[in-house]
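Hi everyone,

Forwarding the result from last night's run.
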Amino acid sequence: MARLIRTGTKRTLKAARALREICEAYRIDLPELRVRQGRITLGACRLDDAVRLARLLGASSPGADVPEATAVRDLLAQAFPGGTGGGALRISVREDDPGVVELGAVDARTARRLIGALRF
């Protein structure tokens, strides 16, 4: 049982590290990215980084020079499942900071699909 837990944790940590590295390569800042309870929490993301992520996943530009947080949230919510071949990501706008969207958590499998989508 301990070996199964260790193996699962190792895969999740490896996926989180790879996701962090590829996001850094694309200059997408996810300072709160970490593993919690077996899932990878992406955390806070500035609007310009969220738009960049959505574009990398196949979304079109939001249009405005300074897009609204709700438009960016919707754009990323539409692009994520298509870009990763499935999987969902909870995205919300921070009430205390409208220049930031809060990205939820994904499992290691979805994170690996996201990594694959960002690599190609």
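The first strand starts at residue 34 and ends at 36.

Cheers,
N.
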